[in-house]
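ENCODED BACKBONE
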Amino acid sequence: MLDLSLNVNYNIHERGFIMLAKRLKLLRSNKGLTQEQLAKELNTSKSSVAMWEIGQRDPDSDTIILIADFFDVSTDYLLGKSDDPKLPSHKKEEPEPEEEPNVKWGEFGVSFGSGIHMNDLTDEDKEEMIELFKASLKLRAERNKRKEEEQRKKGDDRK
């Protein structure tokens, strides 16, 4: 019984690395890279890449992560646990702002340091504040988009 259990675990392990071999070769080919070019990107030898692609050797876990990062896919995809190559998003997705954010005036109970209270504002003041708030939302969305692009670029530079 113990031998059967070990054999089953070995087969599961083996299938993952067979899938990695196939997917690694596919990803490399799709990106138009030679084994030598990929080896250089991963700081390894061409023979290691060749052995991984034919399933004769298995990359270590750190290298699997490097491969996934380089091709911008998940390790689950590389190992055959998922058919979706996309990386899962762990960050909270912010909805894209509408052309005109739906901002309405309400009872906020806010007072300003100069002694002006919401009830003291004219309709024109309120409309101006709403426009400023809308502009602030747009600026925030643009800033967040720039930050994401910078982070993505930093990730690309590491590769």
User: Anything to note?
Assistant: Residues 123-158 form the longest helix (36 residues). Confidence is low (pLDDT under 50) at residues 1-13. Residues 89-159 form one domain. The chain has two domains: 2-78, 89-159.
